[in-house]
Amino acid sequence: MTDRATSDADREPVRPAADPGDAPGAAPAADAPSSAASGEGPPRLAPRPLDRPAVDATAESVFGRPAGLSGGFAGPAARAAAPPVATVAPPALAAAFGRPAGADDTLQRPPASTGSEPGAEDPFWAGSGDDPWRDPGSGVALGPPAVDPGAPAAAPTGEGARLSLREVLFGRRVHPRALALLAVLALAVGAVGGLVGRFSAEGANALTEPGVTLAAVEPALERPPGSVADIAQRVVPAVVSIEVRVGEEGGTGSGVVIDGGGFVLTNNHVVAPAAEVAGASIETVFSDGTRTQAAIVGRDPKTDLAVIRVGVTNPVVAQIGSSGSLAVGDAVIAVGSPLGLAGTVTDGIVSALDRPVRLEGGGNVNAVIDAIQTDAAINPGNSGGPLVDATGAVVGINTAISSIGGGEGGSIGLGFAIPIDDARVIAEELIRTGVVKHAELGVNARSVEDDTSAGAQVQNVQQGGAAAAAGILEGDVIVTLGERAISGADELEVAVREFEPGATVPVGIVREGRPLTVSVVLASD
């Protein structure tokens, strides 16, 4: 194998790249030892020379030392021979800080005499050891300002020119003609204001003339939303007065518009005379005085409800509420035409709910309603009008009153209305078909009670009826129907009408002292 090792003496000396600090083309230092000659190792680099940039001539003339001066301070002879090193001061600075005219000293002296005679050696520079400028204990004296006493005094400044109003207000930015126009406009506005004030004063004088008396004005009453006045304003336009004429006789009642097609809901006993006699007429009167003829759409004597229709375009329609949400004590308002007085409004509360009431008089002797009882004043003529809640929604149809004196008396605080939940179903069926079918139990009953209970005792059972098919016998006392307790014959009748024909209903009876429950499939009337 070839030996590739070589000795240090056989190697070519390695010369580093030219040092950036060396001058181009400079030869190696003469005193640098030659590693090849000495045989001591690789060559060593010489120290880099200092980089001294050239001094600007202008800066040197201003900040450089005078020629021949090497220290920080120069003696008097050197200072006298040295050329000035500063530029000439501006005139303003020279006048403020320069030496007085004729002064030959170069340093400002204290105001007091230093004891030196003219021409004597300057004590500030005498000797080399004592330098007052370097002595921290030397005293400080304040001299007079460097002002030339021979300079003339400055003349006093005179009063300057005064500014005009236009210059003060507008800074010479408004033309005089514009100012004149502005003044004319101001005068015109003032003149018009003066004339208006004069005429106003003359008009006010009439109020202070003798013989003029102003009537006292009462503050306006507040009618907040939900008040009786607010509800009346919304409901009365949807209530009509119904006038029925049969030959030479007539009667009045009320109704409420329930549909934009002109359908009016009322009581059957209000329009029944016109339906049973040929040539009779029905006329409705709206709150604004509009009169129009009406035609009977359908009647339901068992619930004492009827629907008529009027030929009025876009009538005001009442809002329909829910009687199922009522509670005893809720505020209610009755609207109608009692005793022929159209647009009458009375208010009260709900006195009772689900009160079975049998109507008396005319062809409605057997009609029974499951009524809302109220103490709102209801009188003859209110029949068919709406009973509304505190929101103005219809919750019942006023139908009957309880009075003393054979039914001819007025309201004694016991009025009855058909719940709107029942009336709505009847009205929809009458508008759709003209007739209504009701569930039928097929018994005749009377109210009975003892010391502990009450019910409806069956007097007879119709052959082929629902009760006969369920095994109910004469003498049985019905005490429940569905989930409703039965306390009398009237309540039994309204409880049956709560169901649809064909419904299967559990009926609780008492037979010879023993309670029984039978299932009855209700028939249709």
Global structural class: alpha+beta
Low-confidence stretches are 1-38
Mean pLDDT: 78
Instruction: Give the percentage of residues in beta strands.
Output: 15-25%
| Biggest sheet strand line-up | 1-2-3-6-5-4
What is the share of helical residues? 10-25%
The third-level CATH topology of the domain at 228-433 is Thrombin, subunit H
Task: Please describe the topology of this protein.
Elements: H1 35-38, H2 57-63, H3 76-81, H4 91-97, H5 165-170, H6 176-205, H7 228-235, E1 239-246, E2 249-257, E3 263-267, H8 268-276, E4 281-285, E5 291-300, E6 305-310, E7 331-336, E8 344-358, E9 368-374, E10 386-388, E11 394-401, E12 415-419, H9 420-433, E13 439-440, E14 443-449, E15 454-461, H10 466-470, E16 477-481, E17 484-485, H11 489-496, E18 504-511, E19 514-521, E20 523-524
Antiparallel strand pairs: 1-2, 1-4, 2-3, 3-6, 4-5, 5-6, 7-8, 7-10, 8-9, 9-12, 10-11, 11-12, 13-20, 14-15, 15-16, 16-17, 16-18, 18-19
Structure described in brief:
It is built from eleven helices and 20 strands. It is an alpha+beta fold.
Q: Care to describe what's here?
A:
The strands form 4 sheets. The chain has a 6-stranded antiparallel barrel. The chain has a 6-stranded antiparallel barrel with strand order 7-8-9-12-11-10. 20% of the residues lie in helices and 25% in strands. Among the domains are: 228-433, Thrombin, subunit H (Beta Barrel), CATH 2.40.10.120; 439-524, PDZ domain (Pdz3 Domain), CATH 2.30.42.10. The longest helix has 30 residues, at 176-205. The chain has helices at 35-38, 57-63, 76-81, 91-97, 165-170, 176-205, 228-235, 268-276, 420-433, 466-470, 489-496; strands at 239-246, 249-257, 263-267, 281-285, 291-300, 305-310, 331-336, 344-358, 368-374, 386-388, 394-401, 415-419, 439-440, 443-449, 454-461, 477-481, 484-485, 504-511, 514-521, 523-524. The termini are far apart. By secondary structure, it is α+β, with helices and mostly antiparallel strands. The protein is elongated.
